[in-house]
Amino acid sequence: MNALVLLANGFEEVEGITQVDFLRRGGLNVTSASIHDSKTVMGAHNIPVGADALLSELNPDDFDIVILPGGGVGTQNLGKSQAVVSIIKKYSAENKWVAAICAAPSVLGDNGLVKGKKCTCYPGFESHMIGGETITDEVVVDGKIITSRGPGTALAFALKIIELLVSKEAAVEVAEDALYK
What we know:
The structure is a single chain. The protein is of the alpha/beta class and about 180 residues long. The chain has a single domain (about 1-175), classed as Class I glutamine amidotransferase (GATase) domain (Rossmann fold, 3-Layer(aba) Sandwich), CATH 3.40.50.880. It has helices at about 15-25, 70-80, 80-95, 105-110, 155-165, 170-175, and strands spanning about 1-5, 30-35, 40, 50, 55, 65-70, 95-100, 120, 135, 140, 145-150. Strand 3 (about 40) and strand 4 form a beta hairpin. It is globular and about 40 Å long.
């Protein structure tokens, strides 16, 4: 299974890097992609991160899941990107996995992807979850949409993705190896 983690300037580092790290530990082929013109993406806390590739150089059809880390500015940058919006809409239409954490589920909500679904997001972004039923669980899965609440839920989010795309056993093994719960 191939995972695409989209990195935008201002992304929440814990949410982006945890996904890349844990999903690789869980057996997924992960590509981090900058949505900008440089592979170096500046995180919300001024930590520069080197992406594996530029989104513009990739074929979205090569991936089974797209993951959007949050962060206030990062989420704004994701939502303004026509490429990102095109990918999430395409994946949703093709019943492929779409995952977002923290403020990033608002990009899904603003584009109609949570309508009629249960979802979660960082507190204060509920108004963006248009037509969705926002609940406060750490991770919410409804159909092929996976949402999570914030930096403190990044590990649970990654483990749920591993469980759904690889296996429950792989998720348990990664959690145990990381001394998580």
